[in-house]
Amino acid sequence: MGLFARRRDSTDIMGHQDAPMSKQLLFGMLCLIGAMAYIVRTEANIPGVVIALGGALGLMALFFASLRRPELPLYVMVAYLPFSKLLSGSFGGAMMALNLTNLLLLIVLASWFTSVFTSGRALIEPHVLHVPVALLVAWAFAIFAVTTARLGGEYAAEYANELKRWLDPFIVYVAFFHLVRDKQRWKNLVVILMMGVTMVALMAIHEYLSRGEASIERMRVGGITQQPNILGAFFVYYMFLFTAFWLERMNQLKSWLLLIPFGLCFRGIMVTFSRGAYLAFAQGCLGLAFFKNKLLFLLATGAIVFAVFNPWILPPGIQYRLQSTFKSQTELTDPYGTAELEEGLDASSANRILIWKGAQQMIQEHPWTGVGLGRFSSQIGQYMQQVRWYDAHNAYIITAAEMGIPALILFIVMILVIFWITYVVYTHHPDPFIRATALGFLGGLSGLLMANMFGSRLNTSEASGYFWVLAALMARAYAWVEEERGKQRVDARARRRSGLRTAGSAAVVPRGIRR
């Protein structure tokens, strides 16, 4: 098998070709994404009355359309997720309790419940990924209740919205998993997602070009997340989808066009000037290459090692940003280790090490229940010399600090299970499109492990919403694989039983032939 060889034909599990994607549908979603991007970038001042009226009519139309076509809210939700922070949709102040994200979630949930009622299927379909997800959610509720009992009702009132925001991605996962039951819907969602990622990259580049000359800190682009490090993680999570389709279809000339959005995403990472995103991108490349082909992995490893020892080949912006991490190279190479690490780092990096040291003490004092969901920033100052609000700058640390070590274990197990089912989909599903998506997600998952070492990059819907959509899609594809495996096992047992009966019949000798 060649380095980039395709392994299977394009027929699905049932042995027939899929219908082509609806170009009208995808064009409509592209127009919707473009319209939202235009509003965000131009900061169009739309009157509140128009927003309220248009939003109400649009949501009503979407709701009634979903009764006939339950996939439509899913498509709109995927198109909207990257803009959910900047276009929160309070309807001109007419609806303060519910924003656009919540209303879309309600429509998606209504579509799910309607499909359950009309089809007669169970509300919750069993799945291996549901187990760690359910346990983590249950633990979060338990921690919230324990913290409320310890601190009083004021905590519950203040942090109820934090709990709801934390739960939103899991609601997206469960709803998408149960509503995506055919491959055409599955593929449409992936295409819309890739269009959204490309648009975010174009917006980031446009924002960078419009700023003019300034210091790096002022030039850093936050884009849809309004935070450069989170935006960098966004690109790392999803940009490898383009590379995976290119690798899986290199013999098709049009697949080389996918390198254009991949390049746009890489440029998007560059304009964030995020060191964590640079490292996460490198790890994502290694993960993608590892799962694609071991020879490709060796080549990618060699290229990264060469870049480390020859940084002159890197773009100047990346060189400067990485070099600015250290104030003094001699302090870090002291053979006797007499210099403290944080003294050799820039202010941002040194501050993170101090925060992590304080977080270690916090976890030691509250190993089982943590300090409570959302309370890390307000409590970390008690474990540092300066009493200030700080972010943990590490998803693993903040999970353990706020909800205890058991929550961290469940979180890691959940990520590993997502890794496993995605790998199974990539290696066993017969559809090339689904395999390519799985390969790209494996690269994104590899980068995710590194990105969350430098910040909490899975706690915002605009950055992590697509992650949970992809997790739901992989869970559904894994269910298809397991379903086919089950059929094959049943057929194999039937053939064995048939063979035994045939052999038994042949072994019976008629009485008239006996001697």
Mean model confidence by pLDDT:
84
Distance, first to last CA = 59 Å
Alpha-beta classification: mainly alpha
Please indicate the percent range of residues in DSSP E strands (runs of 2 or more).
under 5%
The low-confidence runs, each spanning 5 or more residues with pLDDT under 50, are 1-19, 92-97, 327-344
Q: Strand tally, please?
A: 0
Radius of gyration over C-alpha positions, nearest whole angstrom: 26 Å
| Shape designation | globular
Classify the helix fraction into a percent range. 55-70%
- Largest pleated sheet: none
Strand/helix succession: HHHHHHHHHHHHHHHHHHHHH
Q: So how many helices?
A: 21
Please explain how this structure is put together.
- The protein is mainly alpha-helical and 515 residues long.
- It has a domain at 127-324 and 404-499.
- Helices cover 69% and strands 0% of the residues.
- The chain has 21 helices and no strands.
- The chain has helices spanning 23-42, 48-68, 72-80, 100-119, 130-151, 153-179, 183-209, 216-219, 228-238, 240-248, 259-272, 275-292, 294-309, 316-323, 329-332, 347-365, 376-379, 395-403, 405-428, 432-451, 461-507.
- Helix 1 (23-42) packs parallel to helix 3, helix 4 packs across helix 6 and helix 9 runs parallel beside helix 21.
- Mean pLDDT is 84; it is low at 1-19, 92-97 and 327-344.
